[in-house]
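Action item from last week, closing it out:
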Amino acid sequence: MRSPVRPAALIQAHLDTLEAPQRELVEALQKLVLAGAPTLSQTLQWGNIVFQRHGRNAIGIAAHREHVHLQFFNGQALAVQFSVLEGRGRGLRFLKLRPGQPLDDELVGNLVRASIEELD
């Protein structure tokens, strides 16, 4: 019988497919998300790293050709407090980041913590 592929292996395989500038940004975001919410689990969905809490999608990292989105599945509730979030629709909002630009660790940490508080 085959053993299932572990999420960590899937995530590492996904990171290995990214070009260096995007991979570095995705890895930095991954560390910041886990630093702000260490109890989140990680998986790969829709070709993106997705952080879950109690089986619910909370935060995602989506790498695009020219930028990376830090996605908040409950972002609509955060948009009033964090005007830097982009997007429309029922729930998802994102922070658009470009490789090579400075990363605002404090902003990302605040967004992560606010997102998790909103889930509780």
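Closing note: The chain has four helices and five strands.
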